Amino acid sequence: MSLVFDTSFAPRYGEAVDIAPKVQRITVNNPSPFTFHGTNSYLVGHDTLALIDPGPLDDAHHAALIRAIAGRPVSHIFVSHTHRDHSPLAARLRDELGAVVVAEGPHRPARPLHVGEVNLLDASGDTDFVPDLAASDGSVIEGDGWALRSIHTPGHTANHMVFALEEIGVLFSADHVMAWATSIVAPPDGAMSDYMRSLDLLLHRQDRIYFPGHGGPVTKPKTFVRGLKAHRKMRERAIVERVREGDRTIPAMVGVIYRETDPRLHGAAGLSVLAHLEDLVARGVVHTDGNPAIDGVYW
Questions:
Q1: Could you give the 3-state DSSP secondary structure of residue 199?
Q2: Same domain? 181 vs 248
Q3: Are residues 186 and 94 in the same domain?
Q4: Co-location of 197 and 246 in the same domain
Q5: Does residue 208 lie within any of the structural domains?
Q6: Which residue intervals define the domain Metallo-beta-lactamase in the entry (predicted)?
């Protein structure tokens, strides 16, 4: 199944954009190869609001959110995961608005660090974040005219959650599923086996549209998620083929598999290959001397 990305998106920085009944999007002006045009924050409700993914410590975005809130009460701040483009502004807004911060839990790796391993993603993790309320998988929090279900979708990070506004068939898919690109799955923050299980979890749901953490909506969720699964399986086959062809290091595999990818993303691509190799080694498809590592040798 082919995977077709949609890169058409107008961020309209500083504006609150109506995208669904009782849903507005405000996009941070923090574009990059990893964030696309920027991080999306969402306001849900009319009189008393929920805020989803407040974003980074950015004064202009903070001001845009305060303008959009327009003096209305904000009862809850939902945080999908603890990367620094999504969660740090939560603490400031909690103090200002008196809202309850909801998330799966603090930042943590998907697995323990191996002996001698350094977490290359430490700089991207919001290790200071602590939620007021740790949401369990499937739990529902109700507000004034809205109800959001929390769904644990580890893979991109261990604590990644998506939030469903089931009344209108909307899923706020954060960085788990995005229309413009595949999600980065990079050990030790994330795990490919977790990511694939989380995709399967979404396939059993009946959401009609996804609003992601970056870029525009996913308008045909089931078709797109099946495409994501097929894409990951294709990458897995490519990695196994490179091992069979004699590649023994991740940089060698990246140079071939991602030769048409922006070189600025080759570091992330290497971590994605590592995520696949961890899964392949766990399943006995590929063997390695010791634990899989970014500088490991495979056969």
A1: helix
A2: no
A3: yes
A4: no
A5: yes
A6: 38-214
Torsion angle, alpha carbons of 13, 19, 24, 28, to 10: -30
Locate 194 and state its tokens.
């977790």
* Distances 171 to 28, 78, 205, 230 between C-alpha atoms, Å: 20, 13, 10, 21
Domain that holds residue 243: 233-282
83 and 210 inside one domain: yes
Between CA 51 and CA 41 the distance in angstroms is 7
Asked if 135 and 219 sit in the same domain, the reply is yes
What does the pLDDT look like over 41-98, one tens digit per residue?
999 999 999 999 999 999 999 999 999 999 999 999 999 999 999 999 999 999 999 9
Domain count, the chain: 2
Helix ranges (DSSP H) in 165-265:
192-203, 221-245, 250-257
Predicted model pTM: 0.95
Residue 22 resides in a domain: yes
Domain check: are 130 and 275 in the same one? no
Kindly state the helix (H) or strand (E) to which residue 43 belongs, with its residue range.
strand 40-44
Q: Are 214 and 175 in contact (CB under 8 A)?
A: yes
Strands 74-78 and 100-103: parallel
- Mind listing the pLDDT tens digit for each residue in 99-152? 999 999 999 999 988 766 666 566 799 999 999 999 999 999 999 999 999 999
84 assigned to some structural domain = yes
Would you report the helix, strand and coil content of the chain in percent, each value rounded to 5?
30, 20, 50
Query: For residue 193, what are the CA distances in angstroms to 20, 92, 236, 265?
Result: 33, 35, 12, 22
User: Does 56 reside within a domain?
Assistant: yes
